[in-house]
Amino acid sequence: MRENFDTALVAAGRSTAIPESHDVYGWLVGDWDLEALVYKAVEVPHSRGRIHFAWVLEGRAIQDTWILSDRMYGTTLRIWNPALQAWDIRWFNPLSSHYESQTGRRIGGEIVQIGARPDGTPTRWRFTEITSASFHWIGESLKHDGKGWLLEGEFIAKRKP
């Protein structure tokens, strides 16, 4: 079989190098419908879209594509980091030239990603209300006073049948 970009990128599943107990993103693999509430937006704060998740890079990472009308067509790469026992996360949205770096871990019943924007603003992104068929994603940034989190966006996702 001739290898091409798709077959070289996409993997059949998780690498054995990632302990099953640290596989916090594998359940996302597949296709999802998305309802978005973006509070930072001046126009169209509510919209619909879709997300696609897959194992990539020989099963050592999860990559996704978030598609939301004309506002977002971005991708996240979540790479297992054995030295940290956590996930290195990079988000890119070429439509807005927005990118972020975070570290992700399971904390209780949530998946929490902590990081900072290029300007130094701390961010926290959380997967909550997780089931096999749905999740609630919450995006926050630290308030300027450093005493609380500012809700910037919420995404409600439901797995496509």
Explain this structure.
By secondary structure, this protein is mainly beta. It has a single domain (5-159), classed as Lipocalin (Beta Barrel), CATH 2.40.128. Helices cover 3% and strands 56% of the residues. It is built from one helix and ten strands, in the order αββββββββββ. It has one helix at residues 5-9; strands at 30-38, 46-56, 61-68, 72-81, 86-93, 98-107, 110-116, 122-128, 134-142, 149-159. It has a ten-stranded antiparallel β-barrel with strand order 1-2-3-4-5-6-7-8-9-10. The longest helix is centred in the N-terminal third of the chain and has 5 residues, at 5-9. The chain is globular, with a radius of gyration of 16 Å. The mean pLDDT is 91.
Short characterization:
This protein is mainly beta and 161 residues long. The protein contains one helix and ten strands; from the N terminus they run αββββββββββ.
